[in-house]
Write a structure and sequence with these properties.
This protein has one domain: MetI-like fold (Orthogonal Bundle), CATH 1.10.3720. Helix content is 78%, strand content 1%. Helix 12 runs antiparallel to helix 25 and helix 24 packs across helix 25.
Length: 534
């Protein structure tokens, strides 16, 4: 069974490499001379911009809410996580509504300057590489904020307290003590943000930014070259491995220990005068631009286009999203807790290998995974069809790809590590003595898992399944590349309408995705509070 799990996870990557380096004709020379140089350079610039801005916003806001006292601090502690509920493509669409020529921002500028046309004033173009960098940074900075704040909270009872007693001022404490100690956490947060940046397809296509992800999509669907898409996806895979290596290098020999099991809050720095309002607006700005303003755009459009938003397409997309997310959540929860249970009770090398391989999918961008899943599933569809024709004279067609089963398979691979982590965390709180007692009373391993462990880890199991459900509802790259014909989810409905310049007609679908996305934000906020303040 473990070998089957390893095979299911590795099959898409193996298929990707096979078609990329197989008999692909002269695709490689064409890509190297035309597509790859531009795509790689654009991707590098995008990632450098997003990495820099998320680093600054995440670290500064984490420090402010941890060590400073100013108006609204208690609210910003959790409000700074709200942009996580916003998929990047939705913020990109909403930002165009705000900052485009007909939007309120430029309308206000024209009113102030008494300008008649766009030639009478200058305004930055939102549909550009800088615009994509800004939008993605406003959505992805919470990854850095979350990991960095956790590190600052752990430091507060140890090194930071000692440094303050030795006379270190706020700036010196921040740059000389806090930042070096938090470097591993910062490296993790920035790497997560960059992986999400690399995974995005909706925002970069809408803004005309031709990254590697866009090139995979364009080469596959618009140029009908699966081999070329697979080759570009392999280049993306190298970028992912490079990010993982950089993240590990950033944490190398950087392990610090605390001497207390509980968080002990420091008095902090009471900010006064202009400093407290500077801190207030420094925390308010990313929340306003990354969550509040896009939410207002969605609410306004939903009200104005009420009739257009609630047609048959919306309800069909809602049902499809719910079913796909439910199936994926249940399957990943079952498989994840099973892997965690096996690893807990068996320390064999192959078990550890299976669990490590199971975590690979989360690091692989959706476009890469979609290309890799399509190849083996298409061959399997062909085999099933030919077999059924030979035995029963029945043509099954694209049974797996056409039914959405391939989508669920891709979701399970991509989000398996989420449910596995939840199962591992839950089982870690259950004493092995309970399992041993059950086994001595004649229960099998499966009975012990069902009767003892699962009831005790139910909250963790439900949380993991809920996170997978939300991730699937928001997922766009995998869905748009593997969905059956005439099959829409909420994410693809929003994407399609935005491509037709009719984003307002899918504003309630976008608002539904955001509403679902708030759930993990609440869970994260509660987890942080319980972990460090109990």
């Amino acid at each position: 069974m473990l070998l089957l799990v390893i095979g299911l996870v590795l099959a898409p990557l193996a298929a990707l490499v096979w078609i990329a380096f197989g008999d692909a004709g002269d695709v490689w020379p064409h890509l190297i001379s035309t597509v790859l140089p531009r795509s790689i350079w654009t991707t590098i610039k995008l990632m450098l911009g997003v990495g820099s801005i998320t680093l600054v916003i995440g670290v500064v806001t984490a420090w402010l809410v941890t060590m400073c006292r100013f108006p609204g601090k208690a609210i910003f502690e959790w409000a700074l996580l709200l942009p996580l509920a916003m998929p990047t493509y939705i913020v990109a669409y909403a930002s165009v509504e705000i900052f485009d020529y007909t939007g309120p921002a430029q309308t206000f500028v024209r009113w102030v300057l008494d300008a008649k046309t766009s030639r009478d004033y200058w305004f930055p173009e939102i549909r550009s590489l800088p615009g994509a960098i800004l939008v993605m940074s406003l959505v992805l900075y919470p990854y850095v904020y979350l990991t960095t704040r956790a590190s600052f909270l752990l430091q507060s009872a140890c090194a930071l307290d000692v440094s303050r007693t030795l006379g270190a001022g706020p700036l010196r404490l921040f740059f000389s003590v806090a930042i070096p100690l938090a470097r591993p956490a910062i490296a993790v947060g920035v790497t997560l943000a960059l992986m999400e940046c690399l995974n995005d397809i909706g925002a970069v296509e809408f803004y005309g930014v031709k990254t590697l992800t866009f090139s995979v999509y364009d080469t596959w669907l618009n140029r009908s070259s699966l081999a070329g898409a697979a080759q570009i996806a392999c280049v993306m895979l190298l970028v992912v491995f490079g990010l993982i290596w950089i993240e590990r290098a950033g944490r190398k020999n950087q392990r610090f220990h605390v001497t207390s099991k509980r968080y002990q809050a420091l008095p902090g720095y009471w900010l006064a005068g202009w400093r407290k309002w500077l801190a207030f607006f420094a925390c308010l700005l990313p929340v306003a631009l990354g969550f509040l303003m896009p939410s207002l755009v969605l609410v306004r459009s939903s009200i104005l286009r009420y009739g257009d938003n609630f047609g048959p397409d919306f309800w069909s997309a809602m049902l499809n999203s719910f079913l796909l997310a439910s199936f994926a959540a249940v399957l990943t929860a079952m498989l994840g807790v099973w892997l965690a249970y096996i690893e807990r009770n068996n320390g064999a090398v192959i078990v550890k290998l299976a669990t490590r391989i199971g975590a690979i999918g989360y690091a692989v961008p959706g476009t890469i995974l979609a290309v890799g899943v399509l190849i083996p599933m298409a061959h399997l569809d062909g085999y099933i069809n030919s077999t059924m024709k030979a035995l029963f004279g029945i043509s099954t067609g694209l049974l797996i790809l056409g039914s959405g089963a391939a989508l669920v398979y891709a979701y399970v691979i991509r989000f398996l590590t989420v449910s596995y982590g939840a199962g591992e965390s839950g089982l870690g709180r259950v004493s092995v003595n309970l399992d041993a007692a059950a086994r001595t009373l004649g229960r099998t391993s499966f009975q012990t898992l069902c009767e003892i462990d699962l009831p005790m880890i139910r909250p963790a199991l439900i949380s993991g399944a809920l996170l997978v459900f939300v991730d699937v509802m928001k997922e766009l790259p995998v869905t748009i590349l593997l969905r059956p014909f005439n099959f829409d989810t909420l994410a693809t409905l929003v994407y399609t309408q935005a491509s037709l310049e009719s984003f307002e007609n899918a504003s309630f679908a976008a608002l539904s995705i955001v509403a679902v996305g708030i759930v993990p934000v609440i869970l994260l906020a509660r987890t942080t509070t319980r972990s460090y303040r109990l």
